[in-house]
Amino acid sequence: MTKSLRARRRATLLGSCMLLGLTTVQAHAAAGAPSLIPLPANYQADGGKDFVLKHAARVGGNDEASRRVAAQFVELLKQNGGPTLAVAENANKAQIRFRLDPSATNPAEAYTLKVSNTGIDVSASDDRGLFYGAVTAAQLLTDQTPGEVAAATITDAPRFVWRGLMLDSARHFQSMEEIKKLLDAMAQHKLNTFHWHLTDDQGWRMEIKRYPKLTETGSCRVPLGDAGRNEATGQPRTYCGFYTQEQIREIVAYAAQRHIQVIPEIDVPGHATAAIVAYPELGVTDQKLVIDNQWGVFPNLFNTEESTMQFLENVLLEVIDMFPAKYVHVGGDEAVKDQWIASPRVQAHMRQLGLKDEMEMQSHMIKRLEKFLEQHDRRLIGWDEILEGGLPPEATVMSWRGTEGGLKAASEGHDVIMSPVTHMYMDYLQTESPNEPPGRPTTIPLQKAYEFEPVPAELAADKRSHILGLQANMFVEHTRNNRHLEHNLFPRVAAVAETGWSPQDKRDFRGFTQRLPRQLQRYRAMDIAYAQTPFQVDLRDKGDAATGNVTVTLDNPLGYPVHYTLDGSAVSSRSPLYSQPLQLKVPVQVQAAAFFNDLPLAAASNFALTADSLRVREDTQLGLCPNGGKLLLRLEDDGPAEGEREVFNVNIFNPCWLWEDVNLAGISRIKVRAGRIPYNFQLAHDEPARKFAPAHSRYGEMEILANCEGTPLASVPLPAEPGADGFLELEAPITAPAARGDLCVRFTGDTRPNMWTLDWIRLEPAR
Ligand code: ACM
């Protein structure tokens, strides 16, 4: 019965008024090449006079298709924060001119753009190229001095044909408007593939007319805890959502207008719980299943019967009808085979087919689906697990568990898309800031995403063309709303887009960070809730409350210059520049911001350091205990159903927090504030890694350990429930060693289906 938790103390962020100041960044911006993202293949300054956009400027095209792109350009420019221009009846009277020239020998998606004092001319041999020229023109006109563009010639074409983004609409569900906004943003980044993950354990999100229960039953679950209960009635409150076939067609058409192909994913044979709940005959066991609000890897697989294969083929028939793209994704990932191993029917089926193990059984299924798709003029894609047990001859592999699967598949002559979890997973958080939303705190910072190289150095030269491109994957277990979704995606999608589009030898992270501030301005114009965290300043402090001495480290995750004040006054680019740790005395008020061209990149951070604050650490300031398994997650509370929720950093394998190198001299008591949240993870074969310290009383204890080992300094029994606000304050008298050392705080016992989490820990001196 976890209650929703109150908002808690964080570094306060000052001044949305400062952000507004960014709209005048143009006045300060450095001269030079424009801030284009992705960087074009060739940009040549022409040295002539600049083009200056007038209010009465017109946009035109030489034929109907070009005029369509002209109209799209008007929209793109407006989205980027530029003026609303009109399309001219007569192309000769236009200043921004689009021209389709099918006789030109440009590669696909390529374009040429020429800026002179008379206007901007964009030409291409296909409408995709012309559209990308329009995207570039809209960026040029919303650059350092909006409306003014330096004379230049751009010849541009993408490096890879597959520049993708995967969205999981199963774990959480996005509205049509949210998906269209995402497609707009993808187009603005010249991304061309939207991989739509529509089925999973937690929900089936696509109407299939032949099997109505897939959405009638399979699209709803009851969230755990507060969000799953109607407060007034106490009745279950469901979380539901699916897209009708009409809506899917609408999305496919909307994407197509922006030259984005939509690749549906139907996950087979695992991640199938929602389908099996709707049609139990598809499952392996007789166990009655429900659609659980749990994350992780579920045991439930489709069975291998002919009737199930026919079900899947019937589903694919409707899928093919809705999605015109060449590819259909059939998943194949994380299908733990325990149910197949335990099933006499599946085992008999395997013997009958002469298959030596369950991998070959999965491969048999995937090969059959591949053949079916081939018969319908489609190509199969699967996650890299489809390599196991033998890859179907024409399959394309999406390499997610690293790049090794992709390397192997490409070496064998298969097409590959690289989307490794190490670099391309957008549910991994991008900084260590306490302001990050829920997600996985193994961080994938912007730079790491940027520096991912999709073509492995080990791949033979004659096989490199099999790397079709790269893809960012956005799984949304921890991403409940669109604001968090956009935070996770942006600006990292810009990095992915540049890797997908720009020539390898032109990629340069520092150059990218110089172009990024203009892109942020475009995001603001598009109302994209991009992550502020990479542009903020993080503070780390290490001090001694007894002496009041504190060493303060300031950091901007992207390395933009940091300025600060220590007297509570507003920070500006004229304030001292941070260059090395500051030796300060508490109390002190630190205000800091990262700057680009004299303007702050995000709201200033404000930190009040006092003797009291030195004795307190929050979960995000603590590490993981040295012993036991480690799976750190940033988890949110279970309520309220809508709106902001409390978040906690917690190691779900071992709920234990580490405060390194702390001085316990003179400390007589330790206070801990704990919260409680649902424990909702299916861990499959990782289950043994989950180790809870043994409980010594009915509900377990909070234990404090010096140096994280031996007999606890203190052990406080836990109650059955937290307080009415969902929190619990615990106090433990200690006889501490008068020395510095590491301190661990853990909760003992197996408290599932809930878990205690640490909110903060405070050292109390002897009175
Ligand atoms: C995946 O992350 N299971 C593809």
TrEMBL record:
Keyword Signal annotated: yes
EC number of the protein: 3.2.1.52
Chain coiled-coil ranges: none
Listed Pfam families: CHB_HEX_C_1, Glyco_hydro_20, Glyco_hydro_20b
Record bears the keyword Signal: yes
Glycoside hydrolase family 20 catalytic domain residues: 160-503
Domain of life of the organism encoding this protein: Bacteria
Name recorded for this polypeptide: beta-N-acetylhexosaminidase
Sequence ranges assigned to domain GH29D-like beta-sandwich in this UniProt record: 547-595
